[in-house]
UniProtKB/TrEMBL annotation:
<dbReference type="InterPro" id="IPR036249">
    <property type="entry name" value="Thioredoxin-like_sf"/>
</dbReference>
<dbReference type="InterPro" id="IPR051548">
    <property type="entry name" value="Grx-like_ET"/>
</dbReference>
<dbReference type="Pfam" id="PF00462">
    <property type="entry name" value="Glutaredoxin"/>
</dbReference>
<dbReference type="InterPro" id="IPR002109">
    <property type="entry name" value="Glutaredoxin"/>
</dbReference>
<dbReference type="GO" id="GO:0045454">
    <property type="term" value="P:cell redox homeostasis"/>
</dbReference>
<protein>
    <submittedName>
        <fullName>Glutaredoxin</fullName>
    </submittedName>
</protein>
<dbReference type="GO" id="GO:0009055">
    <property type="term" value="F:electron transfer activity"/>
</dbReference>
<feature type="domain" description="Glutaredoxin">
    <location>
        <begin position="20"/>
        <end position="78"/>
    </location>
</feature>
Length: 107
């Protein structure tokens, strides 16, 4: 098995995954926990702080029914708020996109 994070294609073969976009704020505890899990399981992501990017803040509000809900994860156009973080929410998001966590990494 490769050390590169993998996704399963339509035929069940492994393929490299593109990064998740994670919208955050500096004060968000749920964001810290989500980042920790993504790092621990070697899931690539890029972080956008909505406090520093007004367009990103507007996007987050648009996809969350007018709420500035963070963390908001986006993958292949699908957005989901993980506010009120639970491992089940993160696992559901990853499963929906057939993203498979790798063995835990030290954080």
């Amino acid at each position: 098995m490769s050390d590169t994070p993998q996704k399963l294609d339509e035929e069940g073969r492994e393929a490299p995954i593109s990064p998740i976009t994670m919208y955050t704020t500096s004060w968000c505890g749920d964001c810290v926990v989500t980042k920790s899990y993504l790092q621990k399981f070697a899931i690539p992501f890029r972080e956008i702080n909505i406090e520093a990017d007004p367009e990103a803040a507007e996007f987050v509000m648009k996809v969350n029914g007018g709420r500035r809900s963070v963390p908001t994860l986006v993958y292949n156009g699908d957005a989901a708020s993980l506010s009120g973080f639970s491992r089940a929410k993160l696992d559901a998001f990853l499963a929906r996109h057939q993203l498979r966590p790798q063995r835990p990494q030290s954080v």
